[in-house]
Amino acid sequence: MASQNFVFHLHISTDIVRKLTLSSRPESVDELKNTIREKFQLDFDFNLSYQDPDFDGQLCSLVDIEELPQKAILKVIRPEGDVSSASSDDTVILPHALSPDRAEGWPLVFPVPTFSYEVELILGEGNVTYERTGKIVKLSKGQKHDILETLAGKMHSFKAYPNDKEVSMVAEALVTKHPCLKEPGSRTGWYGWKNSLKFKMGNYRSKLSRAGFHEVAVNSGKRSRNNPDKQAPHTNIKRPRRAEVNFLPNFPRGEDATSLEKLRLQIADDVRRSDRNLVLIAKLMQSTFALRRKEVISEDLPIGDVLERWPALKVDSQICAEFHRITNVNLKNHFYAELDRHAPHLLSLFRIKAGLTQYISLQVSQSDEPDIDDMPIGLLSISASSTDATPLCPERIAVVLEGNIVIEHPTLADAFVTLFGLMYVGLHLSYPKELANTFDFTQKVLMGTGGWKVEAQKNKLNKIMKTNTE
Asked: Backbone phi, then psi, for 33, in 5-degree steps?
């Protein structure tokens, strides 16, 4: 009688459940774990538990392979000490340390800082007088300098290059908190403050550039009287384009390019090993973050070269970690939480927009050997059979960058969010023209990385969904 197959219902995480069929019982628990790791592309350490039929399906740690039933429900358990393990359940959650320079992006409401004791005293009395008589306060040159300098420092703590609307927000917040600073004859009451803040931010960046602050120094050395052959001062300015919080940080104290390069080589060597030390890799990647950003921003290193020099960025946990270092947003947690929140309304909208089905069917191409050489970015669905009738539910999904497969995932959602995260790793990666609105929606609504624009996007979405569901 032929031996029967071993069939397992494998819970990789709370939202990923796969079927695993083996022709025979594995020789050991380690062999079973290696099979699971290779088949489902898992890049983290884990243990296995199974539902024991002798105890009404209660979970039991799998230590002896002989205890494993021929048909069982298995669960992947990540160790508590794993740097990328879940804090509350088995979903992949990455509790990375905050990036070294900035802890948050531009706020929805700008917090006016506390000024010097002298200025605060004058403003306090001035506000009381303004409420009684409507009289504004007159500041000395030094007092106004203190206000502008303090505001510039606070603005820089969020962003080195605030745009016009953000500077307006600061000026408005200033006169709202201190109405005695309103400008007579001005329609807004703060237009002059706005212009002064713009000039002050330029001077503030110049000081930081001379002090060696990388984020602004990268844009120095432009055309001047002494350097007439260089680029014009307002061309090719390298600044955050997608609400990056830590765009180009300085090297850690006591480190330079040479010492960080040694750590990079150590990372590359450890990634190539079959028994990767993921905790060590995570620590080294955190330490070398500034070197990577220098290569991407200052040296314009293409994404292909970045991934070749930093192979850890092909590991799922480190893609999420790098996104967190750049934006201080947890990639997968935030994406899935917001997607779950918007899903009911989005599904209603998709049902109404019936033409979408036809559009998607036209965009899905089937081929035994698809040509990806000229594909700048994309997702490649891989099925065991070319006759599979479910193109959106393939066996696995590959993330493609510049004609190369970077990583594979078991679900389309994981592959898409990984692709989105990689868009932040390379400076020159732009959203595909045909899907620009999709990525823009993901960035500003699902990920919330877009400052004041986020609320406008959400309001527009809610208005569209309300109109179409009534």
From this structure: -65, -40
Q: Locate 440 and state its tokens.
A: 């823009």
Residues 115-131 have pLDDT tens digits of 999 999 999 999 999 99
Give the integer Cα–Cα distance in Å for 123 and 267. Answer: 54
Task: Using DSSP bridges, classify how beta strands 47-52 and 16-22 pair: parallel, antiparallel or unpaired.
Answer: unpaired
- Tokens representing 16? 């990923």
Could you count the other beta carbons within 10 Å of the beta carbon of residue 400? 20
Question: Do 319 and 407 contact (CB within 8 A), yes or no?
Answer: yes
As given in the structure block, the two tokens for residue 226 are 């002494």
- Segment 65-108, tens digit of pLDDT: 888 888 888 888 876 444 444 333 333 333 333 344 677 788 88
Rounded-to-integer distance, Cα 398 and Cα 370, Å? 12
| Residue found by looking up tokens 């019936």 in the block | 354
C-beta atoms surrounding 216 within 10 Å: 22
Which parts of 289-372 fold into alpha helices (H)?
Answer: 289-293, 303-309, 316-327, 331-352, 355-363
Which residues, 6+ apart, have CB-to-CB distance to 254 below 8 Å? none
Paired residues of 13 in beta bridges = 16
**Conformation bin of residue 375: beta by default, left when phi > 0, alpha when psi is -120 to 50:** beta
* Cα separations in angstroms, 246 against 118, 181, 217, 448: 34, 33, 15, 16
Q: In whole angstroms, what is the distance from residue 57 CA to residue 73 CA?
A: 9
Domains and CATH numbers, the chain: 6-77 (3.10.20.90), 117-211 (no CATH), 257-327 (no CATH), 331-469 (no CATH)
* Residues composing the chain: 470
Rounded Cα distance, 204 and 218, in Å: 15
DSSP letter for 33, please: H
- pTM of model > 0.85: no
CA–CA separation, 195 and 174 (whole Å)? 13
Question: What is the per-residue DSSP string for 258-274?
Answer: HHHHHHHHHHHHHHHSS
Instruction: Compute the distance between CA of residue 160 and CA of residue 231 in angstroms, rounded to an integer.
Output: 21
Side-chain-side CA neighbours of 450 within 13 Å: the count stands at 16
CA atoms within a 13 Å half-sphere pointing along the CA-CB vector of 432: 13
Q: Which of 164, 118, 162 is nearest to 137 (CA)?
A: 118
398 — phi, psi (to 5°)?
Answer: -100, 140
Contact status, residue 20 vs residue 7, Cβ threshold 8 Å: yes
